[in-house]
Design a protein that fits this description.
Number of strands: 2
Number of domains: 2
Radius of gyration: 24 Å
Low-confidence stretches: 1-17, 190-197
Strand content: under 5%
Helix content: 55-70%
Number of helices: 12
Largest sheet: 2 strands, parallel
């Protein structure tokens, strides 16, 4: 971590001419958002109004004012947006600094955190995260291995029930023991065959 702070300091000095001018590219409201050090900023603006530029320069401004890159978390909705922001920041502060930022999608960042801290929750750091297709394929394999009819136990419907349980913070043991959930399952087609799930 000290190496990241050192790289931040040396790179900011090398790029100080770029950083000195970045505020000139912003209007007054944007400058206020970039220069705010009193907690988080909420930026609400229409398409094409410079939100990404403001966020990019805010991160550059934080770095210029001594905030270590490893202390900055920037979450985006898409990998493309994360890549573009990181590239823009690297153009301002240098790639040596930008590489230490915690920047990405919600999923990628929290996957990274889980891998780093996996041992604290008794998980291996090499766990695999399944996408929808992987999960459906696994459910088909389970349904087949249990000699269940796939027409009755449709993977997408089973996934929906699992998702509903997760959204309601119901653990597998609680799901099986919860009478309300069993009664809810009875309202689904072929419910008489689902009671053992």
């Amino acid at each position: 971590m000290l190496q990241g702070v050192y790289l931040c300091a040396t790179t900011v000095l090398q790029n100080s001419s770029i950083l000195a001018n970045y505020l000139d590219n912003l209007n007054e409201a944007q400058q206020q958002a970039v220069q705010n050090f009193q907690g988080p900023s909420l930026i609400i603006a229409g398409a094409g109004s410079g939100k990404t530029r403001v966020l990019t320069y805010r991160i550059a401004h934080l770095l210029q004012n001594g905030v270590p890159p490893s202390s900055i978390l920037a979450l985006t909705f898409t990998n493309k947006a994360a890549r573009e922001m990181k590239e823009r920041i690297a153009n301002v502060v240098g790639p040596q600094v930008a590489r230490y930022l915690w920047m990405g999608t919600f999923h990628s960042i929290f996957s990274r955190i889980l891998r780093a801290e996996a041992t604290l929750i008794d998980y291996p750091s090499t766990f695999t995260i399944y996408d929808t297709q992987d999960a459906k394929s696994l459910l088909r394999t389970i349904i087949k291995s249990m000699s269940l009819e796939e027409n009755t136990y449709k993977p997408s419907l089973v996934m929906g029930r699992i998702s509903a349980a997760k959204n309601n913070l119901v653990l597998p043991s609680g799901y099986k023991q919860n009478e309300t959930i069993r009664e809810t399952d009875q309202g689904y087609p072929h419910s008489e065959n689902r009671r053992n799930l």
